[in-house]
Amino acid sequence: MGKIRIKTYGEEAPKQKKIKPKKEEVKVPGLKGGEKIKTVGPTNPEEVEKATSATKTPEEKAPEKKKKQKFVKTKVKGKKYLENKAAINKQKLFTLNEAVDVLKKFKKASFDETVELHINVKEKGLSGQIALPHGTGKKVRIKVADDALIDAVSKGTIDFDILIAEPSMMGKLAKVARILGPKGLMPNPKAGTITTEPQKLIEKLSHGQVNYKTETEAPIIHMSVGKLSFAEKQLSENISTALSAIGSTKINNVTLKSTMSPAIKLQIAS
Is 45 helix (H, G, I), strand (E, B) or coil? Predict the structure, then answer.
């Protein structure tokens, strides 16, 4: 006999349709029109992020840098300064006596201000010494170089305004030249601080002898010529002595001021 087939009767179970995973489309920035990335199955956010970053240009990948805000400090002038400034003519050139008179009439600070000359000269490298007839009013700390002082300087201790040295000490001072040089304290012949008679030089410097020199980068000399408590005649004589020592032919312009006051322009005597 051939193969026997048995057929059953009744309701047949309906066939279940296979559900295919839905394809989702993800639009990616940077793709041209019509270009899409197709993913099959459930979308994984991490995978989408990787796919997105892969198509970004370097400019798009780079995080945006936050711009730092710049804060500019502005100096606020005090009430006395502004009142003093308003009391003078900025364009006027004052004679020496007029300038000293105006300076003395300014509203003053609570301390004895230093009187300053700011001299714009015609060339850099000018330096010298001036013996002011009435001194500067400031107690000058003067020391003579020795082994103990050199050792103290090498450790960072500088407790003097002027350093005097005998010629025999210059070789030893070379050890601390990098410390003293930038501060303008290294003894040198131009400043007259190298001498065989240090005690005599100390007496001269203590009685009003001052050193002057232009700035390193600009032909400007800054000099103290007394205190605001000085009499007008004393200030005038100190200023006149200083300007004469430098020489009017080397000077472009001069301003006179105290520590807290505005500047007063001086006439340059020929």
Answer: helix
